[in-house]
Every structure is written in C-alpha cells, then in structure tokens.
Design brief:
Layout: H1 2-12, E1 17-19, E2 37-43, H2 51-67, E3 71-74, H3 91-97, E4 107-109, H4 129-135, E5 146-147, E6 153-157, E7 166-170, H5 174-177, H6 188-204, E8 210-214, H7 239-248, E9 255-258, E10 264-267, E11 277-281, E12 298-302, E13 306-314, E14 317-325, E15 331-340
Parallel strand pairs: 2-3, 3-4, 4-5, 7-8, 8-9, 9-11
Antiparallel strand pairs: 1-6, 2-13, 6-7, 10-11, 10-12, 13-14, 14-15
Helix pairs in contact: 6-7
C-alpha cells in the first residue's frame, strides 16, 4: 500500500520519490537535456502562523511569479512550537495551508526539532514527526502541496523528466542532532546506520548532474546554534549528526541546505567536507542575530532579517539569490551569484 502511495505521489509532484524502504533497480546513466532548468526556493523555520510568515509568503508570491519556482524545500520547524498531534490538527491550516495558499507548487518538507517535540523544541519526541509524514497521504487535506513521503527520501527534477538534472536528498537530522530519544526506534547509532545505508544506496544510483541534500540542522553555522559537534556551545552536542554528514554527505553533494538558525548564510566549503558548500535559510518567519559571524568563512550572510534563497540550476551553472524581508514586509534581492562547472 505504501509503495502504491509513493508511486502516486511521484506522478503528482516534481520528480520521482524514493522512500527509505525502496530499492530501485540500477538504470543506465541518463544525460540531461542542455536546456533543462530547475528553479526552487529554500525556506526554513517558518510554521508560526504569524504576520512574519505571511510577509515572507507574499514576497515568495512575487518573486516566483517573476522568476519561476518549480517547488520549495521546507527546511524544518514546519509547525511551531511543538509540531502537530495528528493529521487533523488545526495547525495544518493556520501554519501551512493558509499562509501558502497562493503558492501553486509542491513543498518538499523535512523535519526539525520543533516538529519532534512535546514542548519548547527539545526534539526528544520523534514519534510526533510521523504525523507530518502521514499528512502526505491524507486524502481530504486542503491542498496537495505538502510532500513528505518518509522521514528521509529522495526525488529528482525537472518534473516528469527521464533525464534528471538534479537529485535531491531530504535527510532526517533530528534523531541524530538532539540529545537522544528514549524510543528505541530513534536511537542514534542504529538510526544513523540505517539512514547512512539508504543514503549510500541513493547516491550510488544517482545520475543527476547536480546533487543537493537538505535537512534542518546545519553542519556549520555562524548563528546561535553554531557548528554540529558543539551545538549551542555544548561539547559533543550534534556529534552523531556531524559524523553522519562527514561520512555520507560531504564531498558527495554540491550543496547542503539547512535551517535551524533564524538567519541567512551562504558558507564556503570546508576542508573536511570537500566540494560541498552550505546554505542556512532559517528566516521563514523569525529573525535572530549572529553569535559569531566569523566562526566560518562565508560568501554572504545576514542576520536580524527574514527571508529565503531562490536557486536556479541548469547544465553547468547554479544561480543563487538571497532575498530579505524587513519588518514592514518589504523584500529585497540582497545577494546574487552564479557557480559554474
């Protein structure tokens, strides 16, 4: 039943989806069309239902109407402050469906600590995240935007293309980045091993010219939460997540996009992570100041602002734009660059 549902989702939304239990057969390597293009937004830490969330959504409407958006990546903390209690929870409407009602494209979502919490974002109740997976399969939901077929999954783009340009990997950071869940299903080492095996298999069968991973918790950040392994200034906090990324993601993807810190950062690759660059896009509804803006080298960064990233991928080039949204809802393209290969 689940595989049939996944197949249905794959037909309905951008690209093809692989849930963590799927084992696709090897296929010949396709060659993307030279005129293939994929455009998407990356936005995190947004599910407040506040005016700030609506301000960012209105900016998205205009930017996407002008420049094009095939889909969004939702980077976690989708429903503040403690996730949802069921697929019938009223918060689906007030903190997702209504704020993005005017955006007509899929949202590929990943889970954050607030989505897996009993109170205050402690991230120790991962079973709550299962409600967000289940919402993907709810037949009578308000819209079909929400896309989270499993806690971690893969999809390709462009939509309906037999020759994908980009492979995306949605990762489940919370069980590995938090202190630890009492539920044996989410114990850190077994969960890390299972997700690592899935990631290695997905990468081995990936033929997209570009590869992008997204999750909630960063590997490196100049914001309040800081770098994995010493998150929030606590030695060894996030060390399991750090180890997972360095062994299974670093140098295998072009870009790791995360949220968690409520600011905007485009960070340079670091030696231990090879070619992989980093984006933190946690300004979907809230703002926060940097604690150490010089902790990691950046191409660009800005704190104390809401906003999002818009990214366009073509054969041989990735365009990155950062858009900021001020307290009055005025939006500005604050940064733009192109990465050629």
């Amino acid at each position: 039943m689940k595989n049939k549902m996944l197949l249905s989702l794959a037909c309905a939304f951008s690209g093809s989806l692989w849930a963590m239990s799927d084992k696709p057969a090897p296929i010949p390597e396709p060659i993307p069309s030279p005129d293939s293009v994929v455009r998407f937004i990356a936005i995190g830490d947004m599910g407040t239902g506040s005016e700030g969330q609506y301000q960012v959504s209105r900016a998205l409407e205009t930017v996407c109407a002008q420049q094009g958006c095939d889909f969004a990546l939702g980077l976690g903390d989708n429903i503040y402050d403690s996730g949802v209690d069921s697929t019938e929870d009223e918060q689906w409407m007030s903190k997702f469906e209504k704020p993005y009602a005017n955006l007509d494209f899929p949202f590929y979502m990943t889970l954050g600590n607030h989505d897996n919490s009993h109170f205050g974002g402690e991230g120790l109740d991962n079973f709550k995240g299962e409600h967000q997976v289940a919402y993907s399969y709810k037949e009578d939901r308000f819209s079909d935007k929400w896309t989270m077929p499993s806690r971690y999954y893969q999809f390709t783009a462009p939509k309906d293309s037999e020759t994908p340009l980009v492979d995306f990997y949605s990762l489940d950071s919370n069980p590995l980045a938090a202190i630890g869940d009492a539920n044996v299903e989410y114990w850190q080492e077994p969960y890390k091993k299972k997700q690592a095996e899935w990631m290695q298999q997905a990468l081995s069968q990936s033929f997209g010219q570009w590869k992008i991973a997204f999750a909630h918790h960063p590997l490196i950040s100049n914001g309040q939460h800081g770098n994995a392994g010493i998150s929030d200034g606590v030695p060894l906090l996030g060390i399991v997540w750090k180890d997972f990324l360095e062994k299974n993601v670093c140098d295998s993807v072009d870009l790791l996009i995360t949220g968690h810190d409520h600011d905007l950062q485009y960070l340079k690759p670091i030696e231990r992570c090879g070619k992989t660059a980093f984006i933190v896009s946690g300004g979907g509804a809230k703002t926060r100041s940097f604690t150490n803006p010089d902790r990691n080298d950046t191409y660009w960064q800005q704190d104390d602002t809401k906003g999002f990233f818009w990214i366009e991928l073509q054969e041989g080039q990735m365009r990155i734009q950062a858009w900021t949204v001020d307290s009055q809802g005025e939006y500005t393209k604050a940064f733009e660059t192109a990465v050629n290969r």
